Amino acid sequence: MTAKIIDGKAFAATVRGEVAEHVARLKEEHGLTPGLAVVLVGEDPASQVYVRSKGKMTAEVGMNSYEHRLDADTAEAELLALIKRLNADRDVHGILVQLPLPKHLDEDLVINAIDPEKDVDGFHISNVGLLGTGQKSMVPCTPLGCLMMLRDHHGSLSGMDAVVIGRSNIVGKPMAQLLLGDSCTVTIAHSRTKDLPQVVRRADIVVAAVGRPEMVPGDWIKPGATVIDVGINRIGAPEKGTNEDGSVKTRLVGDCHFESCAAVAGAITPVPGGVGPMTIACLLANTVTACCRANGLPEPEGLTA
Ligand code: NAD
Q1: Is 98 tagged catalytic?
Q2: Per-residue pLDDT tens over the stretch 63-102
Q3: Can you give the residue ranges of the Tetrahydrofolate dehydrogenase/cyclohydrolase NAD(P)-binding domain (predicted)?
Q4: Choice from 99, 191, 279 to test ligand 1 binding pocket (greatest atom count within 8 A of CB)
Q5: Over the stretch 220-279, which tens digit does the pLDDT of each residue have?
């Protein structure tokens, strides 16, 4: 079998198009422009790239983008004061604090200071609780993107066996909650799981969110299963030659060994071009949803869990 490639890049473009339509309608019919505030503390290069691209895409769909860049040694009180101001700002519907934060800042304290209704990353403890109890919440962007791709591919997920590899608060746990919400039978596997290959072989749906390059080989995959590869790993690619400084060039790979998994799976997301683009699209979708909720308007269909 050769798997259907689930094109996350194209799907994300469709989602962004739907978001842009909702934004235009909110402006025209209600005089509202959704606004997303992104807070970056310090100069982590990867975070800077993410924040830049979030700002660009926010503007592209017609929303207001507010960037707050703070020095790496910013005091916790100063960051909390900024969040308080953003919570009170009626033009700001979504607030995202880019993680990881510098070590002297308490991430849990900072995230839980965000108004849960503006918590477009879905990491606030209230949103975690609401999702866990099947209530309306803000859903973390990466798992939401995975769910959208799965629903698009399968229609109903009811009764399917799903294995999520990884139990992080950002991906693994909320992913498992969402699959449970769609009536899958869910197993969460992690670093202490016994006989991981056997566990994965049971799955109709495999979501890999580990952060270990090409860890899942094709012979762990049940024929015809759907593989969602969340991992983003950079590995050396000597076949691409060397950089000017003599170092070996690199390439991105997922947590699944693409070629061998694609030979067995029914469908698979590539890396890059799979889950990654969906994450930002879902951040934009969450911001529109937050804007609608804040103004008592009906939520956009198909853009929430
Ligand atoms: P994390 O480090 O917080 O969690 C990794 C999880 O993997 C842990 O729960 C751990 O128990 C499990 N694990 C580690 N070794 C294992 C093993 N040998 N067998 C089974 N399980 C094992 O990571 P995270 O934040 O959840 O991210 C996971 C991956 O997803 C990373 O590569 C990250 O870059 C990527 N990611 C991608 C996006 C995206 O937009 N595509 C978003 C978030 C994270």
Answers
A1: yes
A2: 999 999 999 999 999 999 999 999 999 999 999 999 999 9
A3: 140-293
A4: 191
A5: 999 999 999 999 999 999 999 999 999 999 999 999 999 999 999 999 999 999 999 999
Distance CA 62, CA 68 (A): 19
Residue nearest to atom 31 of ligand 1 (CA): 211
> In whole angstroms, what is the distance from residue 15 CA to residue 280 CA?
10
Evaluate whether 124 touches 116 at the Cβ level (below 8 Å).
yes
Q: In the sheet that 267-268 helps form, which strands lie side by side, from edge to edge?
A: 4-5, 267-268, 226-229, 205-208, 161-165, 185-189
- Measured CA distances, 276 to 25, 124, 247 (Å): 27, 22, 26
Among residues 115, 118, 119, 121, which one is catalytic?
Answer: 121
Mutate to test the pocket of ligand 1, among 49, 147, 168 (most ligand atoms within 8 A of CB): 168
List the binding residues.
Answer: 166-168, 232
Domains and CATH numbers, the chain: 30-116 (3.40.50.10860), 141-278 (3.40.50.720)
Does the beta carbon of 140 lie inside 6 Å of ligand 1? no
Structure tokens at 73: 């040694």
